[in-house]
Specification:
This protein is mainly beta. It is 5% helix and 36% strand. Strands 1, 2, 3, 4, 5, 6, 7, 8, 9 and 10 form a ten-stranded mixed sheet that branches. It starts with a strand and ends in a 6-residue tail after the last strand.
Length: 158
């Protein structure tokens, strides 16, 4: 589960970006100031700006020195309301996640953190979305059982 400010929810969809051999991974070109967090400690946030309009939240996943992260694509809100946030840009916009939240330790913060959820839902694996390289990797994981909540779009207000 992910907690951010007053919101909590179950992560329902992610995409993996793993190592310098993954051409779609931001770290494929090596260590840079932007990708430095991906080479760091697992459990840290990696937030970047895309298409000049959206932030995207990733969570670093592998051992220090090996760049890998999962892009959070979907979240089923459980508090303070129940709804689905689908799409990484919508998710960050609705939760007000910005570059200020980059490089935060999500294992210790009480305001912005990950915590264990005991439900083990079925999921499907599909190709990643919106990339031109590495399309053959089925590293998009989407829950099959958590899609029954109303969707929130950019036009919805809380």
């Amino acid at each position: 589960m992910l907690k951010f400010s007053n919101f909590s929810g179950i992560i329902t969809e992610v995409e993996a970006y793993i190592g310098m051999d993954d051409p779609a991974c931001h770290a494929a070109r090596g260590y840079t100031n932007r990708t430095s967090v991906m080479f760091g400690t697992p459990g840290f946030s990696y937030v970047y700006f895309i298409y000049g309009m959206y932030y995207c939240l990733n969570i670093v996943t592998e051992a220090e020195g090996f760049p890998a992260a999962v892009l959070i694509r979907g979240l089923k809100l459980t508090e303070p309301l129940e709804a689905n946030l689908g799409g990484p840009g919508i998710l960050c916009k609705k939760l007000n996640i910005t570059k200020e939240h980059n490089k935060q330790d999500l294992t210790i913060s009480h305001e912005f953190c990950l915590y264990e959820y005991h439900l083990k839902p079925d999921y499907v694996c599909t190709p990643r979305i919106g990339i031109s390289k590495g399309k053959e990797k089925f590293w998009r994981f989407k829950s099959c059982v958590l899609a029954d909540m109303p969707k929130i779009t950019l036009n919805n207000k809380y």
